[in-house]
Design brief:
Radius of gyration: 19 Å
Shape: globular
Strand content: under 5%
Structural class: mainly alpha
Helix content: over 70%
Number of helices: 12
Number of strands: 0
Largest sheet: none
Mean pLDDT: 88
Distance between the termini: 41 Å
Order of helices and strands: HHHHHHHHHHHH
Length: 270
């Protein structure tokens, strides 16, 4: 088992713990949503491995379905085929078309959820029943984030700069005018903590160097704040921020390689 597989297993373990919290908060229907999502992901991965002749990585088909399960509203229980469709769309158009695990340029969970939002808005928008919210869930997610960073399963640079950007923007505007969103309400009333931990830190779709990860995380925080405060679709502001951040991360790497890291190399050689 290589290092990436070990990291993914730790992330899967954290997601399963959060699934347990969500079951406690919203009932056993969460297990059925998760089962449909995981079986769908496994089926897609098996078909893709047969077609491409690539070896199936057993750690590759849990993260996307579990993340989608924990973000979509639990009221989708009556339309589970939508969850399966979102998982298929996300995996196929972001991962399988680009060669498989760790070769995707967009976050599979984010694209799958955006597809569901655009295709079935009545079932996903303005439900106010997202699963990745609430004090118990957020505190548990933050505790798991500390463990994942300690074991180097996720990047601390991306996550910490993401939180700093959010606290600075929301805190500053709240101090200016108290009618602006309260940072505490944003913390517990949105899925931004969960999305930042399990989607914003994805290695394949983020910046690769520590400095780039800090810039990427800060941009994600700014995008979330902007979309959440200015858009009518505030529930999924973090998801839109992730996809926009995916498009910018290669530019961040290119900029650093061309102007910052190149300068360090030249200075070292002199």
């Amino acid at each position: 088992m290589n290092l990436n597989q070990k990291r993914r297993l730790m992330i899967i373990g954290a997601l399963l713990i959060l699934l347990g919290v969500s079951v406690y908060q919203h009932g056993p229907n969460m297990l059925l949503i998760a089962l449909v999502a995981v079986v769908t992901a496994l089926s897609v991965e098996l078909i893709a491995s047969r077609i491409t002749k690539n070896k199936l990585d057993f750690t590759s088909y849990f993260i996307t379905p579990l993340v989608i399960t924990l973000i979509v509203p639990y009221t989708v229980i009556g339309h589970l085929w939508m969850v399966a469709l979102g998982v298929c769309f996300g995996l196929f158009f972001t991962k399988l078309l680009f060669g498989g695990q760790d070769k995707n340029v967009f976050n599979a969970e984010a694209l799958g959820i955006i597809f569901l939002l655009l295709s079935f808005p009545a079932y996903f928008l303005n439900q106010k029943t997202g699963n990745a919210t609430g004090e118990i869930f957020v505190y548990t997610a933050l505790g798991l984030a500390l463990l994942l960073m300690a074991f180097k399963a996720i990047s601390p640079y991306t996550l910490l700069s993401f939180f700093v950007a959010l606290l600075v923007m929301y805190g500053l505007f709240y101090l200016i005018k108290t009618t602006n969103p309260n940072p505490i309400n944003i913390l517990f009333g949105t899925n931004m903590i969960f999305v930042g931990i399990f989607m914003g830190t994805e290695h394949s779709t983020g910046a690769k160097k520590p400095l780039g990860q800090m810039i990427h995380g800060f941009i994600l925080g700014l995008l979330f704040w902007l979309i959440n405060t200015q858009s009518s679709n505030r529930e999924y502001a973090a998801i839109y921020a992730i996809l926009l951040g995916n498009t910018l991360s290669p530019l961040i790497d290119q900029f650093l390689n061309a102007y910052v890291l190149k300068g360090e190399v030249l200075e070292a050689t002199v």
